[in-house]
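lol ok so funny story. i was supposed to be doing the assay writeup but got distracted and ended up predicting the structure for this chain instead. priorities right. anyway since i did it might as well share w the group, maybe its usefull for someone
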Amino acid sequence: MNRSRRTQTTAMPAIHSSLSFYMKPLFLSNSSLFPRKFTVPKEYLLNPRSLCALSSASNQNGGRSGARSLSPSPVSDDLQKIDVNPPKGTRDFPPEDMRLRNWLFHNFQEVSRLFGFEEVDFPVLESEALFIRKAGEEIRDQLYCFEDRGNRRVALRPELTPSLARLVIQKGKSVSLPLKWFAVGQCWRYERMTRGRRREHYQWNMDIIGVPAVTAEAELISSIVTFFKRIGITTSDVGFRISSRKVLQEVLRCHSIPEHLFGKVCIIIDKIEKLPLDVIKNDLKSAGMSEAAIEELLRVLSIKSLTELEGWF
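and the output, tada:
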């Protein structure tokens, strides 16, 4: 029987590939190991939609009684033209680019492990509410989001931090603090593209959870300095910009801003490089900040050195 099947396979090279599975039973006799002679009309070799008629013809020429007519989905006569470029804002990685990407990611991983971090990853698809909770309703305009077949609102992750927070909360007391986790993940943001900023990007996260002292921040800064040195980037190429929510809290406290507004103010401040300054000021005013508090907050955010910051306090 095996020999018969091999013969059948090599005897049908001209038949359309979508027919090969359905026609196998029609070519075998119940009483013989050899394939039955059967002439396939030429039009059936070129038109898969004629499979139904082909099955009926085989029954009339001695095929199995009861064989069902199988009708595949209609095939468009005019093939749709497909753009060979990747979707706007994304990119391909041919071998020469993939080698560079692998080299870069390898350095991400090596530096993370050198400082004692463990690697984690998260679903590319997350609940839309997870990102809205962190960044506000405005983030929806920057999400690749949709409703799945279970009527759930989901989105391709625009960043990794909300997923990290979700996983830490999910694990709860089953993990011991401090946590030192890192991740290198693909993210998507549907926003206006600028030089060096696409709608698809990769993000390297290093997070320390459960260390109240400033030593965690110092370790993270040291790790990124180590990374830059490994790949040949010096102080003439890059600089560091460090933000602290504790500084923001102190500014708000000095102007008697209620603590429950702190999260809302942080969300607005996070957009300071994406929106016009007048919009930021109006949003802060709508959040309950006075004109004097807004001006003082923006002045503190413009400080460029620790010496200046110490002078403010």
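Residues 95-114 form the longest helix (20 residues). Confidence is low (pLDDT under 50) at residues 1-38, 43-59, 61-67.
back to the writeup now i swear
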